[in-house]
């Protein structure tokens, strides 16, 4: 079985040393889903003066840049691209976030952090109507680049 | 139907003005669940040199303090207490986060942010074994204090 | 003549001690103007999928919360309200930012920082078309609350 | 006419993907002017114990490092040099800020952010004497490096 | 023997709940000493264009505001005053930092963080001459306010 | 005698321009010692539910990432590795912190900042028992890489 590289031989959490890893382009996409009932979805304003889902998008983009400050074992690294999409779908709002870098380590956590914070921002703006809104299925959809190879999540 | 206080009359997202709200004690507890299969759970080291779930706890506590930097319409406020618990349970790791303040607005977002970042930290430390780990059911469990009254989530 | 309270008797910059100041509601509004020619203004997209001036608004709101991190002699304080408006007008984009607190010191710098960063965000999004865009007239429009009394800028 | 690269085909603000851009040395210099009347300028202490314009310089340098946290569509990147100068001139204080990097994108926003925050810091330290101080002409003076070529602002 | 309030009954580190503590004025002063030999001290520039010890002072003031972000079990709180002094003395540079708040918990950590970062800033500016510079005796000098009473360090 | 590269010809503190420096692997290790008497050391909980020294380790790792935000003349740079060890020894707790990067400048300040903040975190968790705890001997142990050559501190 593979080793958990974030722990040393004594079980102590640690940062992985990526000094020797190749500086290649790496990209990751993550998703989150904010489940809310029809009543709340219908109350979400949508108009030319500023679609409120934009707030969630910007929050997600800014959060991706903060990832290493938030996740202890993450490496601070430059990011060459971040995008977050928030779409109203059946039963809630679907978030999808992508991050890219040219660095010695991947950006899965940057994509997941962007998706999570965008989802929390949607919750924040809707909680006056329904505190029971739930964020579901925060997960990695796919990653490319790096030695560990590409990954694509199984369908759900 | 109630109004979405985070949007103005034109549908533009905005921060709620809490200048006139009473400075009372407010507390909120949120949960998140990191679903992982038995193989990964069994690989998590647990020993006297440093239980790895501690990393997630600290990450959650520190993230709660960053909430207003992460969630655009949140007010920056002092916090009188933050705690995060991470427990290995059937099918994954259960996170529970509590925040408290004496201020003019609630701390639901602080509790939810702490729970989310703690869950992402668990993901980060386990992703070498399974990139398919999913964070589920990020939600508010209960809140007390403030004019909008107490809230307790329905059982699941 | 009044004293410059941000300097001690030897001329050294210092933070003013506000421990004894009354905790009252204080509000400030600041403005900035991003001057750009008609060609660039016409190129700014405006549509239901997300008015780009929203980006500037959110950047300004988030920057207000960072004021004490940015301006050395500013006190970190809770904010009860922040709002930023960005409006296309003759010759450019007018920014207006308001901040409020209940604290022992004013929020002029929070309003000015929000206006400045919102203006810089507009520059960032338009600089591909015209690097010669200029930010003009970053200034305090009015403040209320606090011992030093209310202030309203003279018309221009 | 050129495209506004910060907006997608639907007019949504977005970050430009710089993954494929060459990592070359890029430098930018920006200016700001803090207009104040002679009375305030004369009151500024200048002595061996600490020239107060130093406060503005340090604030500008530190702000340049925060640029990507403040301007949503900016990429987080390493900086190889930052300098800020603050000079008392006829009618006010002239700020000039320079930033440099070896990266796939330019540092105009870093230079402009440094200049803006340095100017706001001057305002903060002088506002006890005159709240009507205005920050004028925040603008890019020149940039070098990168595919879009060099730029030098026209004289004023 | 007194209890270590930062640990729960199972020995787990935790934040102390200060919700019920009185909001009173609290102040703390801390010191640090940067030991360096006469050769380095003599090389430190001191002139009207900007005493370099100012850099250390500003770094310390800004660091005090970041204390809760840096020290996990510290509460984020407003600060009503911060000051840092850096003085050339026999054998090195003496740092003294003071912080004050009106809050439910003390500011010892804010004063200690300010003193530590100011000392590190001095090291940074002198390390080109002597990497063997040592920071000694980072300690609390005194605190006032709060239920635990006043404290004054014994002479050394 | 060597020049103090952090000051210009007029004695003004400045950031060193590292644009032309080679991007090579650089590593630095720093130490700090938290002196405390036997009574406090004995009270430190050590158990499987979470060794409290872990709090100090995580605080140090996270602080290393904040170095450029804290130390004015430090360059923001990616880090490929950070580790902090905290060990109970005779008379106190010994901290050792290592940072590594592949960049145009060294990481001494990152290692020293990590060691200092880890030491302050230990102080914070023990100050309820003894406010007289002192942090001693914050110093660079060794560095490798870069043009200025390797460095190893003399024994003490």
From TrEMBL, chains A, B, C, D, E, F:
GO terms for biological process: Mo-molybdopterin cofactor biosynthetic process. It comes from the Bacteria. Pfam families: MoaC (PF01967). Pathway: Cofactor biosynthesis; molybdopterin biosynthesis. It is an enzyme of class 4 (lyase). Substrate binds at residues 73-75, 109-110. One of its GO terms (molecular function) is cyclic pyranopterin monophosphate synthase activity. Its EC number is 4.6.1.17. Residues 15-146 form the Molybdopterin cofactor biosynthesis C (MoaC) domain. Keywords: Lyase, Molybdenum cofactor biosynthesis. The active site is at 124. It catalyses: (8S)-3',8-cyclo-7,8-dihydroguanosine 5'-triphosphate = cyclic pyranopterin phosphate + diphosphate. Belongs to the MoaC family. Catalyzes the conversion of (8S)-3',8-cyclo-7,8-dihydroguanosine 5'-triphosphate to cyclic pyranopterin monophosphate (cPMP). Homohexamer; trimer of dimers. This is Cyclic pyranopterin monophosphate synthase. It comes from Silvibacterium dinghuense. The gene is moaC.
């Amino acid at each position: 079985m593979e080793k958990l590289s974030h722990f040393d031989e004594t079980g102590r959490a640690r940062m992985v040393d990526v000094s020797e890893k190749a500086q290649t382009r790496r990209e990751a996409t993550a998703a989150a889903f904010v489940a809310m009932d029809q009543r709340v979805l219908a109350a979400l304003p949508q108009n030319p003066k500023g679609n409120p889902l934009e707030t969630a998008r910007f929050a997600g983009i800014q959060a991706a840049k903060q990832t290493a400050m938030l996740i202890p074992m993450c490496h601070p690294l430059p990011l060459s691209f971040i995008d977050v999409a928030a779409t109203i779908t059946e039963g809630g709002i679907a978030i999808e976030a992508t991050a890219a870098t040219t660095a010695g380590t991947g950006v899965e956590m940057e994509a997941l952090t962007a998706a999570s914070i965008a989802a929390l921002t949607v919750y924040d703006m809707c909680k006056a109507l329904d505190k029971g809104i739930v964020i579901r299925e925060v997960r990695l959809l796919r990653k490319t680049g790096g030695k560990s190879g590409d990954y694509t999540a199984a369908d759900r």
